[in-house]
TrEMBL record:
It comes from Streptomyces spongiae. The keyword Signal does not apply. This is ABC transporter permease. InterPro entries: BPD_transp_1_N (IPR045621), MetI-like (IPR000515), MetI-like_sf (IPR035906). It holds the Pfam family BPD_transp_1_N. Gene3D superfamilies: MetI-like. Signal peptide: none annotated. Coiled coil: none annotated.
């Protein structure tokens, strides 16, 4: 178990190191000059050269990378080229707002999709299965911004229950943002849950046809006990990685939805940073997204090990 955990953590750290290199190289490869973008096209060559020296752009790339990674390990991502504020504090404010949406989305999408997937698998080829499968296919086919637009039309215009846009900035409190969180979270949950439902349904069908479930039924166990004690743990194993990938997808999917609702989250900050060519902020957001992705996959691996006794005892049986 310890060797399994050590290998997974080592792989996660190696992935983050590689991601940091790719993020840095990709941002540096963006067309145009940062100093010219900040000062404007009418800036003199001397002013551009001075700003490039101030920003350290005249230094070798490997020096800038090591300084950036070293600072990031201590929570220092540099200074924003647009606002002049510390990037770490600015990203944290927006990230906290996005975490509010992500938390609600994960809560409803994961729990709801597992329940629906189990029902579809248990009632295979009957009307609950057909209904759930059809709705999930629609959710997989429709982009999140279309779902968000439909939700605005239904629950902000036709039925004015929720605000269509957010008028607060990144420093808004949870109480101020809470009324506007539900529609973005629902839009993300619809798209996210569709993939988990399909995987959970397939897993339940496979597990219910297995020999150990058949044996449990022959022993006279109730359907509820067979599902909860025998089928569900086995069905969750292949579903965990789909859940992890979809949770990591929130880092990108939330950007589109936040832009629709004008929500002050990390996605909106990323779009504005790309438009303003604020490289330190772009690098910080990309690195944070990589950390979220790696952490989700690591959590899925650990959960798989916890649910699968074979992985915990593999090292002892050799």
């Amino acid at each position: 178990m310890l060797s399994f955990l050590a290998r997974r953590i080592a792989a996660a750290l190696g992935t983050l190191l590689l991601a940091s290199v790719l993020v840095f190289l990709a941002v540096q490869a963006l067309p145009g000059d940062v100093a010219t973008q900040v000062l404007g096209k009418d800036a003199t060559p001397d002013a551009v050269a001075a700003l490039r020296g101030q920003l350290g752009l005249d230094r070798p790339a490997w020096e800038r990378y090591t300084d950036w990674v070293g600072g990031a390990l201590h929570g220092d991502f540099g200074t924003s080229l647009v606002t002049g504020k510390a990037v770490g504090g600015e990203v944290s404010a927006y990230l906290g707002n996005s975490a509010l949406i992500a938390g609600i989305t994960i809560l409803f999408a994961v729990t709801g999709s597992i329940v629906l997937g189990v029902l579809a698998g248990l009632y295979r080829d009957r009307w609950p299965d057909h209904l759930i499968s059809t709705v999930s296919l629609v959710g997989m086919s429709v982009p999140e911004f279309v779902v968000a637009t439909v939700l605005v039309l239904c629950f902000s215009i036709a039925l004015p229950w929720f605000p269509a846009v957010v008028l607060y900035g990144p420093d808004a409190s949870v109480g101020q943002l809470l009324p506007a969180v539900w529609l973005p979270a629902l839009a993300l949950a619809v798209v996210m849950a569709a993939y988990i439902v399909r995987m959970a349904r397939t897993s339940v069908i496979d597990v219910m046809a297995s020999e150990y479930v058949t044996t449990a039924r022959l022993k006279g166990l109730s359907t509820w006990r067979v599902v909860t004690r025998h089928a569900l743990p086995g069905a969750l194993l292949p579903t965990l990685h789909v859940i992890a990938l979809n949770v990591a997808w929130l880092a990108g999917g939330v950007a589109v939805v936040e832009n629709v609702f004008n929500y002050p989250g990390i996605g909106k900050l990323m779009l504005s940073s790309v438009q303003n060519r604020d490289l330190p902020v772009i690098q910080a957001i990309a690195l944070v997204s990589s950390v979220v992705y790696v952490a989700c996959n690591l959590a899925a691996d650990l959960a798989t090990m916890a649910l699968n006794p074979k992985l915990r005892t593999r090292g002892r049986t050799r």
